[in-house]
Amino acid sequence: MSIQQRYEGAVMNTFGPPALALVRGRGAHVWDADGKDYVDLLGGIAVNALGHAHPALVEAVTAQMQTLGHVSNFFATEPQVALAEKLVSLLGWGDEARVFFSNSGAEANEAALKLTRRTGRTRVVAAEGSFHGRTMGALSLTSKAAYREPFEPLPGDVTFVPYDDVAALEAAVDETVAAVVLEPVQGEAGVVVPSADYLAEAQRIAHAHGALLWLDEVQTGIARTGAWFAHQLLDGVQPDVITLAKGLGGGIPIGATVARGGAAALLQPGNHGSTFAGNPVATAAALAVLATIEADGLLDATVERGQQLEALLRKQTGVVEVTGSGLMRGAELDGPYATQAVVAGRDAGFILNATGPSRLRFVPPLVITSADLDALDAALPSILDAARAAIASQETTA
Ligand SMILES: *Cc1c(COP(=O)(O)O)cnc(C)c1O
C-alpha cells in the first residue's frame, strides 16, 4: 500500500487527501516516494526558513538533544533564555520586554489573547480576511466563516472590521477595546498588503483609546519579508505585542508571544503555561535559525531572491497582480485556475500553493537559489497554460 492509502486508513481526515507523500529534502528541494524532485515554493507554509535538512539546524537539534532535551518549565535552560534575549534584541525592545514561548502560531495567539484579558477589557478588534489559527481562541479572531461556523459559539468578544480601512477602525475602537490584532500582511488571504500608513494609523487609534496594538507576525516574521519583522519595514510602528511561530524554528514546532512595556507584565504567575513550551531543543533550533540568517546574509538574500521572484511573476502571461515583499509574494491570475496551476506545477516538479481560486502564494525557503527561481521562470508559462487548458476542459464537460 502507498503511504497515501495508509494515510487514509489511519489519519483523521481534516486536511483532505494529501497531494504527495514526501520522503526527503535538501535546500529548497523535496523528493517524493518515487524519487521525483520538486522545487519547494511553499516551504512547509513559510516554515522552512533554512530549507530542508540544513546542517546548522540538524547540528543544533542533535547536540541539544544529546545534552538536555526536555525539562519542563519548572526549570530554566540556557537556550530558552538566550532565545528570549535574542528576540527582544532583534525587535529593538528594551529591558521591559518579555517573551512567552509556546508550540505553534495558534498557541502564540492564545497566549496573547489571554494577555489582553488581563487589561480588564474584553473586546478585541480584528480584521476581515484575517487568519490567526484554529484553536478556539485563535479561531475567534479568524474571520473566515467556513472555519468559524462549525464551532460557534466561539469565545471572545470580537469585532471584525474591513482590513486596510482606517475609518472602520476609528469607528470600532473605543474604551472597551483591549487590543487591535492585525497581520502586517495577510498571509492566508493571499498576501494582502495594506496601505503604507495603515499600521501606523491602527497604532495611533489603539493607543488613543488605551488599547494594545498586537501584530500577528506568525507568517511575516523571521526575515520572511526581507526584514526581521514586517513591521520594521514601516516608519514609527511599534506594536505592544507580537506573535511568532512558522519560520522561527525552521521546522521544529515553536511559537512566541513577545510583549513590551505594561503589556509585558500582564500575565502573572499561574495565568498561563504549557508543558513543552520553550523546551531546550525547540529554542536551540530557533537560535540556530536566527544565527544562520545572520551568518549567511539571508536577510539580503531574501530581498534579492524576492526581487527576482517578483520580476519573474510580473512578466508571466496571465498574472495580473503581484503583491508582497521579500520571499512572501502573492500572484493574482486572470481566471480561477490557481488549483489547476498547483496540479500542473506538481507534474512539472514544483510545489506551488493556491490561497484562493485565482490566487497563488509563494513562501519558499529563504535559502532558495537563483537557479531554482530560474527553473520556475522557465517552467511557469507551460504550467499556467496547462492550468488554463485543465479548467477549460472542466468547463466543457460541466
Ligand atoms: C499560520 C498562521 C497562524 C497559525 O499558526 P499554527 O502554527 O498553524 O497554529 C496564525 N497566524 C498567522 C498569521 C498564520 O499565518
Automatic annotation (TrEMBL):
Binding site for N(2)-acetyl-L-ornithine: R134, S274
Self-association and partners: Homodimer.
Protein name: Acetylornithine aminotransferase
Origin species: Nocardioides exalbidus
Pathway(s): Amino-acid biosynthesis; L-arginine biosynthesis; N(2)-acetyl-L-ornithine from L-glutamate: step 4/4
Family annotation (Gene3D superfamilies): Aspartate Aminotransferase, domain 1, Type I PLP-dependent aspartate aminotransferase-like (Major domain)
EC number: 2.6.1.11
Entry-annotated residues carrying N6-(pyridoxal phosphate)lysine: K246
Gene: argD
Cofactor(s) named in the record: pyridoxal 5'-phosphate
GO terms under biological process: L-arginine biosynthetic process
Reaction catalyzed: N(2)-acetyl-L-ornithine + 2-oxoglutarate = N-acetyl-L-glutamate 5-semialdehyde + L-glutamate
GO CC terms of this entry: cytoplasm
Positions with a binding annotation for pyridoxal 5'-phosphate: G105, A106, F131, D216, E217, V218, Q219, T275
HAMAP family (alphabetical): ArgD_aminotrans_3
Note: May also have succinyldiaminopimelate aminotransferase activity, thus carrying out the corresponding step in lysine biosynthesis.
Lineage of the organism: Bacteria, Bacillati, Actinomycetota, Actinomycetes, Propionibacteriales
Residues making up the signal peptide according to the UniProt record: none
Location in or out of the cell: Cytoplasm
